[in-house]
Amino acid sequence: MTVHTASLGGSEADQVAAVLAIAAGRHFGGRAAIEGLARESGGASRQTWSFDAVVDGKRHELILRRDPPSASKGERERSAALDRATEFRVLRAAWQAGVRAPEVLFELAPQDGLGEAYVMRRIGGTAIARKLLRDPPYAAARHKIAGQLGEIVARIHAVDVKTLPPLAHRQAEDQIAGLRHLLDTLSQPQPVFELALSWLDRRKPTPVQRPMLVHGDYRTGNYLADETGVTAILDWEGAHLGDPVEDLGWLCVKSWRFGAIDKPAGGFGSRDELWSAYQRAGGDKVDPVRAHWWEVFGTVRWGVICHTQAWKHLSGAQKSMELASIGRRAVETEVDLLQLLKAAA
Amino acid sequence: MAQDRPTASELLGAIADFLREEALPALDRAEPRLGFQMRVAVNSLAILEREARLGPSANLREHERLVKLLGRDGTLDELNRELARQLRTGQRDERDTALMAHLEATVADKIAIANPKWR
Description:
The structure holds 2 protein chains of 2 kinds. Chain A contains 12 helices and 10 strands. Chain A has a 5-stranded antiparallel beta sheet with strand order 1-2-3-5-4. Chain A has a 3-stranded mixed beta sheet with strand order 6-10-7. The longest helix of chain B is centred in the middle third of the chain and has 39 residues. By secondary structure, chain B is mainly α. Chain B has one domain. Chain B is elongated. At the A-B interface, helix 7, helix 11 and helix 12 of A face helix 2, helix 3 and helix 4 of B.
């Protein structure tokens, strides 16, 4: 999650505040005053707003997640991300199953005019990896985070699939095909990614007997933590059914260590710490070969995402220096892939 | 015709230094969101500075290796396209030591430009 507060003043913020006052009043049953409304995330299409609703003297600290009407469809079709209504239902099921996730409260109606949107409780903590990894207030938390992440993801995988909305079921094979398809949409050939995908293709893990809820983007940068450790898992739009080890492999991709390269579990601990916490919390025994496969897969996936982010700018869909510059990060994953394949040989 | 100095690399370096040392602190005080964007810009200029210095010879070396590996000539793009095709169809794989030496060298040259601190 990119967090930088934009200065506001335009009519968009006024419109959002007016709609939130009505919707929050409806939900909490009283007249709601909206205070401190501020846009938090960078993208134009998938917005996050922070605000307080004061109802009968009681202050509710809240977050609005929103896809504006104009941006909703095209963007999502390309990215295979969940629509907001489905995301709301996944979050509700996860929260009810005891997962440390934000508590979702209510959805906005189409006639409210904000696009697809819902409101959830705001949770304390920061998602900024650099701070969590280096700043003094988080010194004690740093020793706990790997274990907490293992425990929380076990709870995610244990969510009863019957409580979930319909979700795509993605096996290893579909995932490989998806990345090859994305590579074909880019303008440049990518030998290292092709090599790694063929390597993965020849070693596909057997499909899981019982597909589980997979978060799909479980990594440092996508959860909040404070001085006590992890407070909430965010960014659920990649949720799907599939192999639970996918989440464990993705978390260990080197890019999510943010420089703490000797700590594979998101920059905070060893794979063993992560896996044993996962198993203690009820997760299935982790097969190291399967976990390594998903880590290699995740490394290719992040490399391809770097190129598709840059492509949003290059194709003219979304002009952005920040997106363009991400294209030059892809080679970091090529370095990692050659190391991973060498280590596996 | 050769341009006068500063070279592309020298000029890019001078711009990046100015932005980082003079413009960025002022921007951080006035408008933090733009400060973040400016860091991205400064980082990108540093990549371009290294590319101007190291890119041409890296491309020549890559081309030479590809011609030898594939046993044919063509543009860098054509040769990489052929290599990517062979890798997807499984005609070559990681057991091919000449292939792996080529990829190691190519990636080493790319990361030296994009992010020399990556490890």
